[in-house]
Amino acid sequence: MDRVQSATPQQSAAPRAADRPATSAGGTGPDVGPGGRRAAAQRLQMRQDLATAAMDLFASQGYEETTVDQIAAAAGVARRTFFRYFRSKEEAIFPDHDDTLVRVADLLASAEPEEHPLDVVCRGIKEVLRMYASTPGVSVARYQLIRQVPALREREIAVVARYERLFTRYLLGRFDTGEDIPSGWQRGGEDDSMLAEVSAAAVVAAHNHVLRRWLRAGGRGDVEAQLDHSFEVIRRTFWASSAPGARRRGSLVAPGASGTPGEVLAESALSASPGGEVLITVARTDAPLDVVVDSIRAALSGSERA
Questions:
Q1: Which residue from 284, 240, 288 is spatially nearest to 264, judged by alpha carbons?
Q2: Which of 61, 97, 108, 168 lies at a C-alpha separation of 20 to 30 Å from 176?
């Protein structure tokens, strides 16, 4: 068996996101000195070396035929050293996810309360996408290998589930907090928890769809732009209206604003002020758009003066 059933603290793999360590296995924190940073960098390098050795052996001789001893020997270390970094040989195919989970958890925890929670989750899943996009060749090779090995597909599903649970907990926490939350972020009753779970699942599913399409294309194309487009589809589907004054990162979102600029303008005009008066205009269908806009602007100005 190439899987250890239990491990001592010294033998455990990199910390899980649920453990919420102060720093990731390869990261640095405010209290980490030069020696700590050097050790973290060496640990990260060893994880990468073991993962590369595992990938090469899996591709050349097959997953089932490859043992932990062979992986360790190819990386130039002992078997027990392997188990200091990974619990099993299939875990070695996913060396970056522990660090990425911690990084995403930190992003969620440090998000500003004014930012729409769905936008925060979208920023979080983009960190995962960037992890894959940083090494296109490795990511494509890993994808091809995973498609051939059922055990690796199962491991990938388990990894994806960890991100989804992280996002669901964050969204549920935003609804359950004791702070005042604008009503535009909530539907009321049990719909809130349902919306949190469905939104988290939708964001993860969109990421997986875009990522797989990019990997099948050999890692070519602007994958972040494709993911941003999928986010807009999710916003329009599940979160048709944002909170009054809710901030999308870098800008203010008018109440009801989502999607393209034209949609934002139209929706914010309808919901800008519940107590405001309604303006009705009549225009010929063949009138130039700028003339129609000027007439509306003039009518609004006259209403304000009145």
A1: 240
A2: 97
pLDDT single digits (tens) 254-269 = 334 444 444 444 343 3
The secondary structure of 182-195 as a DSSP string is: -GGG---TTHHHHH
What does each C-alpha distance from 4 to 8, 34, 48, 292, 305 come to in angstroms?
Answer: 10, 33, 20, 72, 77
If you average pLDDT over every residue of the chain, what do you get? 74
The label of the residue with tokens 């006259």 reads 302
Residue 44, both tokens: 């990260």
Q: Give yes or no for residue 6 having a pLDDT over 60.
A: no
Gap between the Cα atoms of 58 and 62, Å rounded: 5
Beta-bridged to residue 251, according to DSSP, are: 248
* Contact predicate 81/42, CB 8 Å: no
Query: Are the CB atoms for 185 and 116 separated by under 8 Å?
Result: yes
The DSSP code for 3 is: B
Burial class (CB in 10 A: 0-12, 13-18, 19+), 131: middle
Within 10 Å of residue 258's Cβ, how many Cβ atoms? 21
Contact between 132 and 216 under an 8 Å Cβ cutoff? The reply is no
Radius of gyration (Cα) for the chain, nearest Å? 25
- Asked if residues 227 and 128 have their Cβ atoms less than 8 Å apart, the reply is no
pLDDT interval class at 270 (50, 70, 90): very low
Tell me which of 93 and 13 has the higher pLDDT. Answer: 93
Report the amino acid identity of residue 15. Answer: P
